[in-house]
């Protein structure tokens, strides 16, 4: 079997979307004649934990671990809650940031470039150089964020001239929160320089969306291939649907994703339709920002909210299948057009209709349309959102609210791993 070394920060028991992509690739790569060896931190600071994912790791996979120095551990001594939020990508609204939060963001953006895991780079290069040579490995994959891991690949490429694949689950300098890091001119320049060096040195770039592919192709002549995230065949028993007309959001609901026009549309439907008022429920699964909750309160929707908090991935899959309608929201910004949320594919596999809200030209709007799995609306289309909810509600009343999906198999984890294996074997 061909050996491939995969360098990842997120790995079970880490929870959240960051762990899913490579957990599933590693699961299926042996089916394509590739032996994955996974390198992870020995003592990471994960903002979310999900012990159930440990059971999905193949016992035969070689796992390498090496100690990491985590600045977030130091920061938590001053503010544990702020540290956890910032490390998980939840950045408070500018107007509501405390002095400590502003300081932490400045330190994160200017002193730890490209991110807080940069102290793991040199020790990892030293450790892996020896391992690669002793075990005859000729191919390395780095996956980010954190983009510090690409600097490990860069170092190994320079020292050993191995074949290096850089996988970008999210963009680097154009990702939404990058602008919130209070970067100095020199720090912003350094980020750009490192990004360019990674993109022009790696043998192959892998991205998750067409927009990121186009963006990177303007920087590098190296091949850039889109391999989206996807869904796995989960052993979840068929679930009875919620009795209420539930609109469910699974995952972190950040402040900047706050769709005021959605809350307004729901409020109007409740006031205009007594049946809708009696049946509607808004279900949240995962961390929800206080700003989102406050806006919901402003529209007097508190009594309709069922906030389940963070639950295991398996339980989240169950909730997806029970919910009447699934809500997908992305930040309204040109910078987020490239973001295709990982939960989209699980939503599609759950066979429940999707209401998606995002920026004009969002890559995921095309996927929803071509697979016939839901309706996409921009942040200016309140009437379309209202009409969609009412249409779904009428189907719910008639007992025939469902989807008729097309071409979902393209997004199965095994199929996507096959695409990856083709690249690795070239």
Number of helices: 16
Main sheet: strand order: 3-2-1-4-5-6-7
Main β-sheet description: 7 strands, parallel
Main CATH class of the largest domain? Alpha Beta
Classify the fold: give the CATH topology of the largest domain.
Rossmann fold
Mean pLDDT: 90
Which stretches of 5+ consecutive residues score pLDDT under 50? Answer: 74-80, 82-90
Kindly state the number of beta strands: 13
Protein described:
It is a single chain. With 426 residues, the chain is an alpha/beta fold. It folds into two domains: 2-227, Glycogen Phosphorylase B (Rossmann fold, 3-Layer(aba) Sandwich); 245-408, Rossmann fold (3-Layer(aba) Sandwich). It is 40% helix and 16% strand. It is built from 16 helices and 13 strands. α7 links the parallel β5 and β6. The longest helix is centred in the middle third of the chain and has 17 residues, at 185-201. The protein starts with a strand and ends with a helix. Residues 107-234 form the Glycosyltransferase subfamily 4-like N-terminal domain.
Topology:
Layout: E1 2-7, H1 20-28, E2 34-41, E3 62-66, H2 71-75, H3 80-87, H4 99-110, H5 121-134, E4 139-144, H6 148-160, E5 163-168, H7 185-201, E6 204-207, H8 210-217, E7 224-226, E8 245-250, H9 260-272, H10 274-279, E9 280-285, H11 290-298, E10 305-309, H12 313-322, E11 325-329, H13 343-349, E12 354-357, H14 363-371, E13 374-377, H15 382-398, H16 413-425
Parallel strand pairs: 1-2, 1-4, 2-3, 4-5, 5-6, 6-7, 8-9, 8-11, 9-10, 11-12, 12-13
Helix pairs in contact: 1-16, 5-6, 6-7, 9-15
């Amino acid at each position: 079997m061909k050996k491939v070394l995969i360098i990842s920060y997120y790995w079970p028991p880490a929870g959240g979307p960051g762990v899913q992509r490579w957990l599933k690739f590693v699961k299926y790569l042996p089916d394509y004649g590739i032996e994955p060896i996974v390198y992870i931190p020995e003592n990471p600071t994960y903002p979310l934990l999900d012990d159930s994912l440990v059971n999905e790791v193949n016992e035969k996979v070689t796992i390498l671990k090496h100690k990491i120095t985590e600045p977030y551990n130091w920061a938590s001594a001053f503010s544990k809650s702020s540290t956890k939020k910032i490390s998980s990508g939840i950045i408070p609204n500018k107007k509501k940031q405390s002095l400590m939060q502003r300081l932490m963001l400045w330190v994160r953006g200017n002193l730890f470039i490209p991110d807080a895991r940069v102290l793991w780079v040199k020790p990892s290069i030293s450790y892996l150089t020896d391992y690669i040579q002793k075990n005859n490995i000729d191919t390395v994959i780095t996956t980010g964020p954190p983009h510090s891991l690409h600097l490990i690949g860069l170092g190994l490429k320079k020292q050993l001239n191995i074949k290096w694949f850089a996988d970008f689950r999210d963009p680097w300098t154009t990702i939404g929160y990058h602008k919130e890091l209070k970067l100095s001119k020199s720090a912003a320049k350094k980020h750009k320089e490192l990004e360019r060096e990674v993109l022009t040195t790696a043998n192959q770039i892998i991205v998750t969306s067409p927009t990121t592919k186009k963006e990177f192709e303007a920087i590098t002549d190296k091949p850039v291939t889109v391999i989206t995230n996807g869904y796995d065949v989960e052993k979840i028993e068929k679930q009875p649907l919620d009795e209420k007309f539930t609109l469910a959001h699974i995952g972190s609901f950040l402040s900047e994703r706050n769709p005021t026009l959605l809350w307004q549309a729901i409020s109007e439907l409740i006031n205009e339709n007594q049946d809708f008022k009696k049946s509607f429920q808004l279900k949240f699964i995962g961390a929800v920002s206080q700003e989102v909750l406050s806006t919901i309160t402003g529209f007097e929707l508190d009594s309709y909210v069922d906030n389940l908090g963070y639950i295991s991935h398996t339980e989240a899959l169950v909730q997806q299948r029970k919910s009447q309608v699934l809500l997908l929201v992305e930040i309204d910004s040109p910078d987020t057009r490239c973001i295709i949320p990982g939960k989209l594919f699980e939503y599609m596999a759950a066979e429940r209709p999707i209401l998606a809200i995002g920026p004009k030209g969002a890559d995921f709007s095309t996927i929803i349309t071509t697979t016939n799995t839901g309706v996409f609306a921009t942040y200016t289309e309140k009437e379309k959102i209202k009409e969609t909810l009412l249409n779904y509600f009428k189907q719910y009343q008639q007992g025939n609210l469902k989807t008729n999906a097309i071409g979902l198999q393209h997004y199965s984890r095994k199929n996507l791993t096959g695409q990856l294996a083709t690249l690795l074997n070239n």
